[in-house]
Design brief:
By secondary structure, the protein is of the alpha+beta class. 45% of the residues lie in helices and 22% in strands. It is elongated, with a radius of gyration of 22 Å.
């Protein structure tokens, strides 16, 4: 690792510890030339993920779009930002675990709804109503009946 102070290429690791729930490692290093210390972070580099939109266009995966959609669905609901970020982390992990290089927005929406249903049913219905484009009150009622039947 190149020293940020003197640009010497050799350093030794003094301390390593996991951060972000084990998804990255923080390393404290010491330059073998100038003896100054600096911190580096090692993180898993995932394969670039491409999202296939409903109209067939492709764009890079952007987790902030998912977070924003969930935040809108959870507005004025008892769902914390940590829970929302955890949902997105789990979705991103599942996508990468299955080694998808491309994924349809439909699949991402289904994953979000699956997670929201377990956290807050009202947020789930809000997200589903936008995501599934409920045409009228009957399709909305049908979705609510599905939730009620699952509870029984």
């Amino acid at each position: 690792m190149k020293c940020p102070y003197c640009s010497f290429l050799q350093s030794r690791v003094i301390d390593s510890r996991p951060t972000d729930e084990g998804t990255s490692i923080r390393r404290r290093r010491e330059c073998e030339s100038c003896k100054k210390r600096f911190t580096t972070y090692e993180k898993i580099e995932y394969v670039r993920l491409v999202v296939i939109k409903k109209d067939g266009n492709r764009e890079s995966f952007d987790r902030s779009k998912i977070i924003n959609g969930i935040i809108k669905a959870c507005e004025k609901r008892p769902v914390s930002i940590e829970q929302i970020e955890n949902i997105v982390d789990q979705i991103e992990y599942n996508i990468n675990k299955n080694m998808f290089k491309e994924i349809e927005t439909k699949k991402i929406g289904e994953l979000v709804m699956e997670k929201l249903k377990n956290i807050d049913e009202v947020s789930y219905v809000r997200f589903a109503s936008v995501y599934r484009h409920f045409k009228d009150i009957n399709t909305f009622v049908q979705e609510l009946e599905k939730i009620l039947n699952e509870k029984r």
